[in-house]
Amino acid sequence: MPTTLETTPRSGDHAARMTSTAVTNEVVVPLYNERRMITQVHQAMVAFVGRHPDWCVSFIDDGSADGTAQVLGTLLAVDDAGGRLRLEALPRNVGKADAVAHGFARASHPCVYFMDGDLAYDPELLVQLSAALDRADVAIGSRGIEQGGRTPGFLRRVLGEGYNLLVRSILGLPYRDTQAGIKGFRLEAARQLFSRRTSAGFGFDAELLFIAHRRGMRIAEIPVRVSESHAQAGSNVRLVRDPLRMLASLVRIRFDALRGAYRG
């Protein structure tokens, strides 16, 4: 069972304050070994919910080994944005897909989102996803919609475009970017999709969109741009191993579809 870190106020006080606040949007932020920048992440999300009081944030620490959860717990004890920021620490590393699913399973607000925990994207983009959910069941950030800004590095661009071509060819999805780490869902749509999810690695995002597409859900694409600092950091994708894993994940999704895994 996951371990919830206590912060001030205690969980009962937190729940009471959350209930008294008109929160309609919840963003799940998975974290793994982000101690180096967790103070910056905390400050950014405190500022975000300060500007948007109808939002709350659930940090899910995915078994970090560098003390991320402990540092963030201390920060939240000082400032949890009036009860709108909380932390749950998983006892072991389960991977981003399962960490996000864990947070979504506990979500109760009308719209729920996930965003990478390294500030690769400006949190204000979440508001644009929220607006898109007025007319859609799922809203996804897309780096494939031109809007200027820094061009990704060569390796990242080649791998991204290559993977997107595979997604289109193998899964038949029309979307320009399935992998951007910022997405939003109406709660009922999220429950339907996550209950049918089988992928826990690279195929996680594509599988959710594949299921949504098959079920006739409305999916909106919103232009997003990776932050300048994140783009400069370069890609951590391994040149040979990860592309092969990407391909294998897509083939497995198509095979699962053929054997009826997504019916019902």
Taken as a percent bin, the fraction of beta residues is: 5-15%
Biggest β-sheet strands, sense, barrel: 7 strands, mixed
Helix content: 40-55%
Report the total helices: 10
Quaternary arrangement of the chains shown?
Answer: single chain
| Sequence of strands across the biggest β-sheet | 3-2-1-4-6-5-7
Q: What is the rounded distance between the termini? A: 29 Å
- Going by helix content, strand content and strand pairing, the class is alpha/beta
Shape: globular
The parts where pLDDT drops under 50 for at least 5 residues are: 1-19
Count of extended strands: 7
Integer average pLDDT: 85
Rg for CA atoms: 18 Å
Q: What are the secondary-structure elements, in order, as H or E?
A: HEHEHEHEHEHEHHEHH
Summed up, what is this model?
With about 260 residues, the chain is of the alpha/beta class.
Structure description:
With 264 residues, the protein is an alpha/beta fold. The chain contains 10 helices and 7 strands. It has helices at 11-19, 38-51, 68-78, 96-105, 125-132, 154-171, 187-195, 204-214, 228-233, 241-258, and strands at residues 25-31, 55-61, 85-89, 111-115, 138-142, 182-186, 219-223. Helix 6 (154-171) runs parallel beside helix 10 (241-258). The chain is globular, with a radius of gyration of 18 Å. Residues 1-19 have low confidence and may be disordered.
